[in-house]
Amino acid sequence: MKQAFNLSLEELQQRDTRYIETLFALSNGHLGVRRPALFSQLAGESNPGTFVNGFYETGPITYGEWAYGYAENHQTMIKLPNSHQLTLEIVGETSQQSDWLINQTVYELQMDQGLLAEAYDVTTQSGKQFTVEVTSFVSLVEPDVSVLNLTITPLNFSGDIRISSDFEHKVTASENNAIDPRVAKAKSQLAQVELADNWLKLTANSGQRIFMSQVLSSGAREPEVGTKNIALTVSAKAEQAVSLQHFTLISAPEEQQISRLAAIRAELDYQRLYEGQLTHYQAFWQASDIVISGNSVLQKGIRFNLFHLYQNAGRDGLTNFAAKGLTGEGYEGHYFWDTEMYMLPFFTYTQPQIAKSLLAYRCSILPQAKARAKKMAQKGALFAWRTINGEEASAYYPAGTAQLHINADIAYGFQLYEKVTGDSQFIQEKGAEVIFATARFWLSYGDWSTSSEPCFQINGVTGPDEYTALVNNNYYTNKMAQNNLYYAVELGLRYGIAEEEVANWQAAADHMKLPYDKEKELIKQDDTFFEKAPWPFAETPKENYPLLLHYHPMVIYKHQVSKQADGLLAEMLFPQDYTKEQIIRDYQFYEKVTTHDSSLSRSVFSILASRTGQTEKGYHYFMDTALMDLTDLQGNSQDGIHAANMGGSWLSLIYGFAGLSFGKQQIDFANHLPKEISELAFSLRLQGTLVKVELKAGGIQLGLLEPNERLQVVQQTADQASIIIKPSDE
Ligand code: BGC
């Protein structure tokens, strides 16, 4: 059983240091730590770091040619030093000498408990033999603390063991000259550093400051504390294990925080934090695990994805979920639409508290979104395409700011949250304002066409497909904006918005242009997608993918080619609005023109394939999403996990294989299990109640694990079942 929750080095083909650092990175949504093994044996350079969600450096973006309204400042998540880089001294011999014989016997991510385990057999140059066991974790009990526990057992000697750690040599910025836009810019990542009394103080241009401190402990022994380092010596006896703990504390320097940190520091107790970690993870898996029978590789893959989703989500209402979580510097630590459209459903359905915090972050940046809309000469609010502090940070507007769909994606996130949890209070108090402000933006940015047929259009935008930019009436954008407007109408009526404004939202939504080619009987990705020349796929060598690294944007944009699911994503989200035949036709066409150069693509193809009876295809796309980082499918996992894809793998199972679709007051499930999976079992929290879903060949079963009079399970056929939600006033 435990096996299925452990990910060990031996199971991985790729073993480059940076890649393993990403996979084995630990986080609690506030702090993230990536580091090499204590005695690393892997090839390649290390790129260690500690990240604090929301702690970023900023400075002006330099444009060769400026235009009004361009994003002004970059925001780059700051890489703090690897806090757990320790030096071991065994009776005067130090671990920095490369002539120790080291054999790593364990290197394993223990996902059931949120721990990283390492173990070594070591022989020093003079022949002293000992074993070391290392357990590390980033605490879910004390979010400002990360922990490393060492258990050392001398085998053939007795004597002093000294452990030391200093901050000074660790403060280095990673050098990065890559031209890949998905990788962070190198310079300016480091905040100003001051070292005093074993406190590392970092101040960024963003005005934020962070204090970092470390503590070593081993029972009653007091550590030696220098100004720039810390050390602890214990006397060890042959064949008797000694344990030492190293804690890193990180906090914002406000008076209150510092005194809180001092209190935590005085009370640091490894056992308490360790046990608390296990309790948190037990609760997590109980609510969110997915059991896939008959395929241990996929089982591991999905658990790995759920683990990273859980550990990397911001939980304080002021931070969000970066595209790479807190596992690496890719995309500079920015938050995108990835959160609402790919990660949020998993949280909404299984960890609603976290979903609420992620949405609360959007509420917290609503003022910046309103200011941005104003800057763009529009009403309402326009959320930044990529950001940490709420301001727009995308320097390339055709694939950044122009992706206005982010507004509607965020609205969709609130709407799904309300439908699934029934938490209307949060919507009334916080969410509704976001929905109204985004609806106002659509009314202001969109235009009524001047032709005889009344038609509401949204022109000059970029949809999810970043290989097609600045088009009129992107199908996905318009469909999502329409949904945003309908939700605004619903909330407007509920919360007393002026009738006229609500009527305007309704009219725009009713007349939203959704481009369709009647002859081809296909949805059109945008007004001109079908007029473009097909991309010359046959003449494109394999090594020229992803296209974005090999062709000028203009060459890509003039062709009929998609980086990722676009119109199909709309069909995935609103299954009630399309016939199966329509989806199959669209699928067949758009699959041929999609490169999947974005990791956000395959899960959507998997879901639609499953729902339309293309079970084998659904399974193959799912395999790719489930194992994307474990196989380094995109070739860049070293820069951080692909968090949206991880959320996508959950969607592929729940929306695809289990066919979940949420209609009006009813959730339907349909069994689309591929033959490679004999059983699938998971639970969801609906309207506060835990629901168990089980699928196997020829049957689907739903069961309420807690009583709820408003939920009624209806078995439609052996392979179809529904939950009907009765209105609360019935
Ligand atoms: C995708 C975007 C996504 C971003 C961050 C890009 O490659 O095209 O849709 O938001 O990555 O994950």
Q: SSE layout and pairings?
A:
Blueprint: E1 6-8, H1 17-23, E2 26-27, E3 31-34, E4 49-52, E5 56-60, E6 73-77, E7 87-90, E8 93-94, E9 101-110, E10 115-123, E11 129-138, E12 145-154, E13 159-166, E14 192-196, E15 199-203, E16 209-217, E17 224-225, E18 229-236, E19 242-251, H2 255-266, H3 270-288, E20 290-293, H4 296-312, H5 338-350, H6 352-364, H7 366-375, H8 405-421, H9 424-445, E21 447-448, E22 456-457, H10 475-494, H11 499-510, E23 516-517, E24 522-523, E25 533-534, H12 553-557, E26 559-560, H13 567-573, H14 580-593, H15 602-611, H16 615-626, H17 643-657, E27 661-663, E28 666-670, E29 679-686, E30 689-696, E31 699-704, E32 711-717, E33 720-725
Parallel strand pairs: 25-26
Antiparallel strand pairs: 1-9, 2-3, 3-4, 5-6, 7-8, 7-13, 9-10, 10-11, 11-12, 12-19, 13-18, 14-15, 15-16, 16-19, 17-18, 20-29, 21-22, 23-24, 27-28, 28-33, 29-30, 30-31, 32-33
This protein binds beta-D-glucopyranose (BGC).
